[in-house]
Design brief:
Helix content is about 75%, strand content about 0%. The protein has helices spanning about 1-30, 40-50, 60-95, 110-125, 135-155, 160-185, 190-195, 205-225, 225-235, 235-240, 245-270, 275-285, 290-315, 325-345. By secondary structure, the chain is mainly α. It comes from Nocardiopsis ansamitocini. InterPro entries: ABC_BtuC-like (IPR037294), ABC_transptr_permease_BtuC (IPR000522).
């Protein structure tokens, strides 16, 4: 019995370490992949050469260093952060709503971000506020969509999670309709709008990472310790209440933090779907239904998934580049169908 318990306790940390190893491997491959190939050992030596007390000589020339630090490294780090945020948010939504089909775009975040970015792309070309306007507009739009959905769901009735889901669908549909109307009125900017909507990591840099860092940190600091409370919610509201937990407060906290994580990711990467559905389900099959394990493992596996998808997007039709949303859709759409079928069979 003690051996079994000890093994179950170690499941989460072991899978987290394994996911971290996969993430580091994917990031190393991602940094090296491209027209100007850089070997993994050269990447490691170059990074070590910037540690003062090691006295390691840089193996790269000036041009390769510029490619590494100004183009590839920020892109790979951005992919890891965006994937981690979307995966953790997806796992949190699924735990809160007890719905395996819940994802980070459930409560209008995607619709709001798309509308905010569209408005800036079309009407904000001559505006200079000293800040990256598209990420900021997408961020504000995502949070506005989430707040609108939550307000509508909380005032429309007493349906709880079901009301919030329906409100999210309604708000998303309305925001998408407004976005489509603007696009039809300004057809000359349609290509730039769709390029952002399909998602990508090549637009961002270190400045965008610093922009979302505070919001990402706050959302993760709130979400990761909430695994215990999500496990209690899985027992039902009555059982959670008997254990001293307020389900409404937990839901509000988790939804707010997950929406903040989604908004931070969307504002710098565009709309990249299916990450928040695919990764938590893979992780759940590996570590079991315990959210104290699912959340941290989803964090590292989500980062590895996004970095790997970006590698495919950059190399599969090189020298051209696929939108990363296309790659995640090719993986996520069949996976979504499998989840839907399994959910249907289990319900029957």
């Amino acid at each position: 019995m003690r051996t079994v318990l000890r093994g179950s306790v170690l499941v989460g940390p072991l899978w987290t370490l394994g996911g971290l190893a996969v993430l580091l491997a994917a990031m190393t491959i991602g940094v090296g992949a491209g027209a100007a190939s850089i070997g993994p050992l050269d990447i490691v030596r170059e990074l070590l050469s910037h540690v003062p007390w090691l006295n390691v000589q840089s193996p790269l020339g000036e041009r390769q260093q510029a490619v590494l630090f100004q183009l590839r490294l920020p892109r790979v780090v951005m992919g890891a952060v965006v994937g981690a945020l979307l995966a953790v948010a997806g796992a949190a939504y699924q735990g809160v709503f007890r719905n395996p089909l819940a994802d980070p775009y459930l409560l209008g975040a995607a619709g709001g971000a798309g509308l905010g970015a569209t408005v800036v792309i079309i009407y904000g070309q001559g505006v200079d506020l000293g800040l990256p306007l598209i990420p900021m507009a997408a961020f504000v739009g995502a949070l506005t969509g989430v707040m609108g959905a939550y307000f509508l769901g909380s005032t429309a009735g007493r349906g709880g999670s079901a009301s919030l889901v329906l409100a999210g669908v309604a708000v998303s549909s309305f925001l998408a309709a407004v976005q489509t109307l603007i696009q039809q009125l300004e057809l000359q900017d349609l290509q730039r709008v769709y390029a952002w909507i399909m998602g990508g990591l090549g637009r961002g840099g270190w400045s965008d990472l610093w922009l979302i860092a505070p919001y990402a940190a706050v959302s993760l600091l709130v979400l990761l310790p909430c695994g215990y409370f999500l496990d209690l919610l899985a027992l039902g509201d009555d059982k959670a209440n008997s254990l001293g937990l307020n389900p409404s407060h937990v839901r509000l906290t988790v939804i707010a933090a997950a929406s903040l994580a989604t908004a931070a990711a969307v504002c710098v990467s565009g709309l990249i779907g299916f990450v928040g559905i695919v990764v938590p389900h893979i992780v759940r099959r590996l570590v079991g239904p315990n959210y104290r394990r699912i959340l941290p493992v989803s964090l590292v596996v989500g980062g590895a998934f996004m970095v790997s998808a970006d590698i495919v997007a950059r190399t599969v039709i090189a020298p051209a580049e696929l939108p990363i949303g296309v790659v995640t859709a090719f993986v996520g759409a069949p996976f979504f169908v499998l989840i839907l079928r399994s959910t249907r069979h289990s319900a029957v």
